[in-house]
Amino acid sequence: MPVLLVASWLGATPAAASGVGNVPQATQTDAAYAASAAANSVTNVFATTQQTSCYRPEVPYFGNLGPANGYSGMSACGSSATTGEDTGVTQYPSQAGSNPGFPAATPMLVKNHSESDIRVDPTNPLHLIGTSKWAVSAEGYNHLLGFFESWDGGKTWPVQGHIPGYEGWTDNTDPVGVFDSFGNFYTLILPYEFYYNANGGHNFKTNQNIEPNPAVAAEAITISVRKHGATAADDWTTNRFGAMDVIASYPAKGREPDKQWITIDTNPSSPHFNRIYAMWVVFDSLTPVPMASFADAKSDGTHTAWSTPQRLPTAGNNPQGDTYLLPHVDGNGRVFTPLTNFSSKSTLTSILLDSSTDGGVSWQSVSTIVHDVTAPPLEYANTNFRDGIEDTFAVGPNRLRNGSYPLYVAWEDYSAGFGNQILSASYDGGKTWTAPIQINDNASPTVDTMQPNLTTAADGTVLVAFYDRRLACPTGPEAAAAGLGLDPNNPAGATNYCVNASLQAYKANLKPIGNNIRISLHTWDPQLNSLKASGIGAGEGFIGDYFGNITTGSTDYTTSVSTYNDGTNPSHFQQQVVASLSIP
């Protein structure tokens, strides 16, 4: 394995919180940024418009905010489905035991595809799987997890559908997956129940007489596996030894799991080769408690029993505990995860680091990566979409002379009154961290960027993707294609409103490689069909809390939301766009 020289400059631990204004590649004009997509031969493929999916939801909801912002409520599927999946014409097995009034009477049309993750099969670099929220009602935040799959390097996405086996819950959420070394794809799922109050709000009470399906746990952390060689939309394994593959079950309100993440150790030289690490947070009376469990993947797509979930250690001082667990494994088999320690969205946050050197049997606090970070507000200015996960984490692939591997953390910083993306690295196993630098290079400081997502390439290149509002909303014919006429705010030409996706590349020592690259070919309006995560009457909208970013060979792939009509999205639904470019 190549040996990487350690950068000669190491920061104090923890790093200073800001980094705002320290842009090593220097800022660029909006015109240069707009032209960067063509200059870097960026391609965009609207993946989720290539098939039409339907499923029968456990809880029907027909609230409709339209025609403003493109909303259209819930629609019956009819004969629209093209995926070949089981649409639920006959009630799904997981819906047995439902109370009267549940499930919905017929299959419903999947309209929106919000929040996403993307992974590459290590046995076939042309085989990609993306996962996303598969929503039948934006107004009701009524969704299951779905997937879209390509065998030609992202050019086409012929196999799609909702991930089966969880239809008996109202929703399941937080798309994230990972391949083992055998080419089996594991996705970690959070199914949960709620029903709708008369005003469209969400009610999470657990009472067998009123909850939609008392035969299933109120909430759970589960695994579903798409085995190597699967080709049909419904080829998923949700059971282990005849029972649902549940890592942890939470049957009562008051202990709420959330923010789950997964990784697998795919380094053949690791003592824990093909070990699966699952992490999530339990909001126990509003205090986040970070949890972890592990199992070992087998070549046939099965795995050993899950270890007893254990609480991760924390060095945080804020009373609200720790969340946003993002596990990664280095080349030594050492597992790392950051934890974001906060008391509320209006206060300063800290990012901590935990690790395990024995395959997840025991965990230790390593360091505080950064302290006193000013978190963004719940909703971004001018629009109503909410803030996402505040940080992202990655491990470099190449061993350093000191025996460790590079670690990278990026986070959102709102100390300037606008969202900036900040990056730091560690070259000594997380003990110390470099002075933070600003990732986004917009010339105007009065625009927001948000939702960073880190990955590293095989040669050690560091790539950070993020959402970006530096370009004004389009005017003229492009405004029509963006659907701006549906938006009551009439945002044509508005600044710090519409959204693009961006990418910045660095060498392993965080020397920037060029400037930010625009990876969305069209600017889009985040108000259109924005999911109402807190209910139809809430102001808060949702474009996702994160999006996907992965590399294979010399190519970087991202999956991000767009409501633009490229000719395949006339209703301006939230669709997943797969962007690809050669790694700079």
Notes on the protein architecture:
The protein has two helices and 38 strands. It has 584 residues and is an all-beta fold. Strands 9, 10, 11, 14 and 17 form a five-stranded antiparallel β-sheet that branches. The longest helix is centred in the N-terminal third of the chain and has 10 residues, at 30-39. 57% of the residues are buried.
Q: β content, as a range?
A: 35-45%
Query: Would you identify the regions where 5 or more consecutive residues have pLDDT less than 50?
Result: 1-16
Number of strands: 38
Task: Name the structural class.
Answer: mainly beta
Question: Which features does this protein show?
Answer:
single chain; 584 residues; mainly beta; Neuraminidase; 5-stranded antiparallel sheet; 38 strands; 3% helix; disordered N terminus
What does this entry show, briefly?
The chain is mainly beta and 584 residues long.
Spell out the blueprint of helices and strands.
Layout lengths: L2 E2 L25 H10 L3 E4 L7 E2 L52 E2 L2 E10 L2 E14 L4 E9 L8 E4 L8 E3 L3 E3 L5 E8 L2 E2 L5 E2 L15 E8 L12 E2 L2 E2 L1 E5 L4 E10 L10 E10 L2 E10 L13 E2 L10 E2 L4 E2 L5 E7 L6 E9 L7 E11 L16 E5 L3 E2 L6 E7 L6 E7 L10 E2 L10 E8 L5 E7 L8 H5 L18 E7 L5 E7 L29 E5 L2 E8 L12 E8 L2
Parallel strand pairs: 1-28
Antiparallel strand pairs: 2-38, 3-4, 5-6, 6-7, 7-8, 9-11, 10-11, 11-14, 12-13, 14-17, 15-16, 18-19, 19-20, 20-21, 22-24, 23-24, 24-25, 25-26, 27-29, 29-30, 30-31, 32-33, 33-34, 34-35, 36-37, 37-38
